[in-house]
Design brief:
mainly alpha, Leucine-rich Repeat Variant, two-stranded antiparallel ribbon, 658 residues
Length: 658
Amino acid sequence: MDSIANLGRVIKCLFEDGKKVEESNAIHILGSCLGWDGTSRIAKDELTIEEIYDEIKEKDQDRISEEIKGCMTRGFLAISILHVSGDLGKWALLTGWSNGLSKTEWSNLASSELHEAMFIASELASAASSAEESRPWIMHCVSTYTESWKSLLTCDDRGVRSGAASTVAKLGLADKSLSSDEGELFSILEVAAGLLGGDDECANSDIKNRPETSLTRQDIDNYSGSPVERGIELLSYLSTRTLVKEEIAHGTSLCSSSSQSILEKLVELSGKNLKSTHVFALSNIFASIAVSVEILQEEAFADKEITLEDYDKYQSIGKSEEELKEMESQKEKDDPEAVSLRIRKMVKKNVPQALINLLDTSSSENAFGQIAIALTRMAGEQSVRGFMIQQGCLSACIEITRDSTHSDTEKTSIRQVHHCIAKLLVTTNPSLLTVSQRMGSIRPLIQLVKDNESSDLQKFEALMSLTNLGSIDNETKNRIVSERGIAVFSYAMFSNHEMVRQAATEAMCNLASHPDMLDHIRKPETMKVWVAFASDFEDNFECARASIGCLAMVTQDNDIAEVLSSSCNAESMLKNHLESGQLELIHRALVVIMNLTLHGGKCREKVIKTGTRAFCEAYVESYHDGKKSKDLNMTQSEQQLLNVTVNLAKEIITHDND
């Protein structure tokens, strides 16, 4: 359809009032040195555009408007061709416009002070910067005719600024010529803000000195994008800069006469019917504000064989001290606290709700992925998780995961959504969630844990969230078990990452009272694993603490107590815990010993073999009156735990005497 529309615009350039333009005039419109049949016109000594332009300059000023009109027509034609084909557009610029004179003609349009002509120059720059083949051409124009370029960028006509702003975004000028000039960066930000706000003056303003031409703005507006869309596009590029992130997040106004901030306008636009490309750009702005440059660099090196630190070291090889200082000064700094503050500002302005709106209106996989990234980054700030849930983020993410028809290219984005759920629920009180939110979160979290492509961080946070959810009631535990949670957690306990092992072990401990978990741990092979994990407190204290804690809970079951008593390593494990000097381990080990003692028989025999009675007697003798503990400089909580262990030791002695 776009090709058909552009073909119609090309035809419009070659017809006037329904009549075909004369061949000679058509040649002038195209500005080509080639005839209709492909033969050289220069060979026939016909005038080129350069010669025609020279003649016009020698005549009265009234004739200049005719020359501008011709340039506009050729510019419009080039825009249409560029939107159809980059190669053909390159021909229109480099060959069709008489061997390079087009750059001068572009400059004449840009500096003409005629808004319609400047609009054509602006849109031509935008179209040329879209195609790789023609990008060097327009970059040369922009860098050579700087005054003409500035006149487009600062023009009081919003449509002219719109095309210039689009060119800035596409050429990456913000990262190059503006990277060390904060003043210029602010001026471009002002342009972007101006495009977002105000009435559509392109359509309503009185265009000054409008040349007589059959071309209208509507011929270009239909496919070039509105000023608002161009503003979004430019901000999407500029938002990679820390300075711009700070300005947007902290309430920079659209203009001096407006009380609405850029961020508020972006949130408002999220409820509009935007194209998928602009949905992506808008979500990219939010995602950029919610992350630091350092984190982006770390993510870029995550799957590489070289780390960011090693890369920096290689970059510094052979550099003098002055050069190293210069390199360090050029690095963008983005303090983590500044990122947290930006996220809090975004949540206050309802950005999470805006992202949900974008999610509802977009059918683009790229846009969907960028929205998921933005939500996940914002959920990384603990203080806003409750507000994000209130604005519908958790429910929206759960709804997405219920659709099982996602394409292969969407799997990464779905994984990101699962991670967002995990981040939201790590610290959220599960009692504040609805039943549907609690139950609906379990399947995507378990899928994230068992996903071979998920990172250790994603697995860890998913396991922490499942542990948090599982603490609320038996109904939630039942859902976790029904989703094969025990098997998934058991597999995760053997992860290469110790924090994942710890989180998986803690998640299993949370299910200790469930019948299926008791059946699982009654198996001798399973018991060996738990004893081994509990024994490893020197290398992984947290994981060992969780393991012995689980054994302390499940050994109330007689069958499990007997399986533990039959384990060859159980005796040494309990001895080592008692001698570790760690109150938390001693407490849990004493609970296990108490349970074994109460069961009697073979279990009690295992306790006797550990020499527990002698330990308990000496322990009570040393600490029962609290005198020695004063010399240990214990905290209040440690003192309380010591008293608990002393009382446990007394109970074990009492039961052993019975």
